[in-house]
Every structure is written in C-alpha cells, then in structure tokens.
C-alpha cells in the first residue's frame, strides 16, 4: 500500500508543518528588521555601549578643564598684566612681574622657610617607613597602632592648627609637660623667630606621617610572602630583609613620597597661616602670594609668583625622575 501526494513538498517536511514554520520565520525576519531600523535592537545597544565610556570620560575631562586648566591659563594671563583684582584689566607689563619676583628679596627669600618643611618631610618619611616595616610583621595590637598612626591625617588641618596653637602657647600643654621634668624657663615656641619654624615643621610632621605610613605599609604588604620565608630559611635578620627585600620592593613608593614631599614643602599654607599668620619669619611662599594678592591688591604680581612656584615644582619633579628613574624591580 502506498501514499501519494499531489505536489512535491520541501525535503523532510510535510504540508501543514511546513506552512507553520515558514510563517514563523517570516515573522522573525520582519521583527528583526524593525528592531534594527529603530536602533533598539542589538545594533542600537552596540552603538550605545561604544559611546558610554566616552560620556564618563567627558564629564571627568570637563571638570578637569573647568577647575584646573582654565584657572591656570587665566593665572598666566593675569601674571603679565597689572591688575588689582577689581575692575577692568590693567596695562600689559610683560615680564615685569616675574622680574620683580626674582629681584625682590622680600618675595623670593621666603623660600628659605620651605627648607624647614623639606627637612621635616624626610623626618616623617623615616618615621613612617620605620613603623610601616615594624607593623608589617606579626605584632601584637598591630591594627590598633596602625589606626593611631594614621588618625592625625584624617583630622582637618584647621583643627590641627588650633590644637597645636594651644599646645605651644606659653603655659600650655608642652610647657606643662616640660615642667614635670624640671624645665622651668621654656622658650617661646611660636613667638621666637629662631625656633618658630621648627615648631611648625614638627606640627606638619605629626599630621602627614600617617599618609606616608599607609603608602609604605600597602607597598610592603604587596611583596610576596615567599620571599620572607626564603630569607628566614637562609637565616636573614630583620635588617637584612629590609635592605634586600623591603627597600628595593617599595622603591617606587619612596620616589612618589619624595615628589609629594618636595611639592608639599613648597606649598605649605594652612598650618603656619592658622598658627602664626606668617608672623615671626614663618611666612611661606604661598602665604606671601596670598598676602600680595588680597592684602596689597597686586593680583598680577601674585599670579606671577604662583606661576613661578608651579614651574619650580615641575622642575624639581623632572630632576627627581631623571636622577631616580622608575625602573622595574625584580626581587626574584
């Protein structure tokens, strides 16, 4: 017995089933065409995914241009003019403001105050490196001591200035502590010009040691533990581990801290301004710039001073990068 058909069908598919499959395929093709044409399908999502990163970058770059580069360009424009900060722009003076910066001893001599903070930055780096190395090993209450060291960096600079203002005042906390050990005639810590900058630099060391401590501690903990284990097997002491493993392993972070130390020592502002307002020979270059702009109404000259400070920081950073290149460290 045989079954015959009136017309040939597609291979392997009989009549009604073939018609339903063809209808479904046509619907899918039609739907896909509409999605592609409207941009809401895979093609549209692909274009949006390609544009999305640039939207985030555009916001960040826009803020950077608005808050950093545009003010810097305006500052350079002000520096070649004579302007009091109010009213229309003054006359074009060219490089006269820059010549005034380098030839007026009252202006350029305040860079000597930065030396106190520059030396203090190395003191705080040494303290931070010591405690970071000590607390990177197994130590009792290590988390507590880490918090104690880092805590001063979290305090607002204005609050620190007022706290140490009372700490150094005559008959204050420091004088009371010294009286317990027999010091009955302490010096004027902020009133004596010969030691005022030492007091302010010590305050800066207390505040910023925590930042270097966290940087050094994170770098030390990123060193593989297998290196310490191998060194202990070979009988290396803690000092030998520091010299041969820790210091080479965190050399990049030390270089970064050096750059921050140079920039910070040249741009110190809030601690001396709050505690002494620049009196008794404690005025830094930034305080001098602010006083020139707002007290003496010489915005053009102050802008030139700010540009000079920026160039000096960039120059010192470039010299540091050339003298201590950022080489890859191989501890294996």
Report what the structure shows.
The protein is mainly alpha-helical. Helices cover 72% and strands 0% of the residues. The protein has helices at 15-38, 42-79, 96-103, 105-108, 111-136, 142-154, 157-168, 173-180, 196-221, 225-233, 238-249, 251-266, 270-276, 285-295, 299-323.
Walk me through the topology.
Blueprint: H1 15-38, H2 42-79, H3 96-103, H4 105-108, H5 111-136, H6 142-154, H7 157-168, H8 173-180, H9 196-221, H10 225-233, H11 238-249, H12 251-266, H13 270-276, H14 285-295, H15 299-323
Helix pairs in contact: 2-15, 3-15, 5-9, 5-12, 6-9, 7-13, 12-15, 14-15
Number of strands: 0
So what's the overall shape?
Answer: globular
Question: Nearest-angstrom radius of gyration?
Answer: 34 Å
Number of helices: 15
The SS-based structural class is mainly alpha
The portion of residues assigned to helices is: over 70%
**Succession of helices and strands:** HHHHHHHHHHHHHHH
Task: Please provide a brief summary of the model.
By secondary structure, the protein is an all-alpha fold. The chain is built from 15 helices and no strands.
Key structural traits:
mainly alpha, 72% helix
């Amino acid at each position: 017995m045989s079954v015959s058909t009136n017309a040939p069908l597609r291979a392997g598919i009989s009549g009604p089933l073939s018609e339903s499959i063809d209808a479904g395929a046509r619907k899918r093709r039609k739907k896909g065409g509409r999605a592609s044409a409207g941009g809401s399908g895979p093609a549209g999502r692909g274009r949006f995914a390609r544009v999305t990163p640039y939207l985030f970058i555009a916001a960040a770059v826009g803020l950077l241009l608005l808050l950093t580069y545009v003010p810097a360009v305006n500052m350079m424009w002000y520096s070649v003019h004579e302007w009091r900060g109010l009213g229309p722009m003054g006359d074009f003076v060219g490089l006269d403001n820059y010549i005034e910066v380098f030839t007026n001893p009252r202006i350029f001599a305040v860079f000597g105050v930065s030396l106190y903070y520059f030396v203090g930055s190395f003191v705080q780096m040494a303290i931070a490196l010591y405690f970071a190395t000590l607390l990177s090993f197994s130590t009792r209450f290590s988390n507590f001591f880490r918090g104690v060291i880092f805590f001063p960096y979290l305090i607002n600079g204005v609050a620190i200035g007022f706290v140490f203002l009372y700490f150094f005042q005559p008959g204050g906390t420091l004088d009371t502590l010294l009286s317990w050990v027999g010091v009955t005639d302490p010096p004027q810590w902020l009133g004596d010009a010969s030691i005022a900058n030492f007091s302010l630099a010590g305050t800066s060391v207390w505040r910023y040691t925590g930042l270097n401590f966290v940087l050094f501690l994170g770098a030390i903990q990123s060193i593989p533990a297998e290196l310490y284990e191998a060194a202990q097997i070979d009988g290396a002491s803690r000092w030998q581990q520091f010299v041969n493993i820790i210091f080479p392993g965190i050399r990049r972070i030390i270089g970064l801290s050096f750059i921050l130390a140079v920039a910070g020592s040249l741009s110190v502002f809030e601690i001396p301004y709050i505690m002494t307002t620049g009196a008794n020979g404690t005025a830094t270059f930034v305080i001098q710039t602010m006083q020139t702009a707002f007290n003496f109404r010489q915005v053009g000259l102050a802008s030139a001073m700010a540009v000079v400070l920026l160039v000096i920081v960039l120059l010192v950073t470039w010299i540091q990068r050339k003298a201590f290149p950022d080489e890859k460290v191989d501890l294996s």
